[in-house]
Amino acid sequence: MNRESKTGAAPIARTFIVDVEDRPGVLNRVVSLFRRRNYNIESLAVGRTERPGISRITLVVRADADTADRIEANLYKLVNVLQVQDISEAPSIVRELAFIKVRASHEQRGEVLRLCDLFRARVVDLHSASMTIEITGAQEKVHRLIEVLRPYGILELLRTGAVAMVRGSDRELTERGPGLDHSSDEVAA
């Protein structure tokens, strides 16, 4: 979906958090919505939340503001969708995980380890001719590490989808979910 909107604004990466009932077929319905409307999902991650029976889907899609509004409205029409939030412009934490298996001879290992330290990545597997590196961070940080490791020879690469959360108490103050005790927002000292 790289079309410009009627207003001429170019699409940007938008991050949606979708809270859904944890039931069979829900993810299929969400993904089918994007397929039917011909929107490309750049990133998709799904996992359980702190609330039993509720899962969170984090989607990254390129869209202009009008398209983002339509996506949100269409998601709300789906059965089992409880909450939709476009957090693209909200203060949020967005992270991705990657495993990078890189060719590394005994002579190159020191250089690769220095790069890992620089990016706060860590070696999770060591073999005679390769190293597997784990990195967690913003998409750009992950991408930069991949690029600096590319000259060594990337043997295998796996990236998760982005996971996201609104910073601070913004989400809990505006979107109180079912089953939460709202009697006091203060924490005992």
What topology emerges from the helices and strands here?
Layout (H helix, E strand, L loop, with lengths): L11 E10 L4 H11 L4 E8 L5 E10 L1 H13 L3 E6 L5 E12 L5 H10 L3 E5 L3 E8 L1 H11 L4 E6 L3 E4 L3 H5 L15
Antiparallel strand pairs: 1-3, 1-4, 2-3, 5-7, 5-8, 5-9, 6-7
Which features characterize this protein?
single chain, 189 residues, alpha+beta, Alpha-Beta Plaits, 2 domains, 4-stranded antiparallel β-sheet, 5 helices, 9 strands, disordered C terminus
Question: What does it look like?
Answer:
The protein folds into two domains: 12-90, ACT domain (Alpha-Beta Plaits, 2-Layer Sandwich), CATH 3.30.70; 93-164, Alpha-Beta Plaits (2-Layer Sandwich), CATH 3.30.70.1150. The longest helix is centred in the middle third of the chain and has 13 residues, at 65-77. The protein has five helices and nine strands. It is elongated and about 55 Å long. The strands form two sheets. Strands 5, 6, 7, 8 and 9 form a five-stranded antiparallel β-sheet that branches. Strand 2 and strand 3 form a beta hairpin. The relative contact order is 0.18. With 189 residues, it is α+β, with helices and mostly antiparallel strands.
Number of strands: 9
What would you say the CATH architecture of the largest domain is? 2-Layer Sandwich
Indicate the CATH topology of the largest domain. Alpha-Beta Plaits
Mean pLDDT: 87
Structure classification: alpha+beta
In short:
By secondary structure, this protein is of the alpha+beta class.
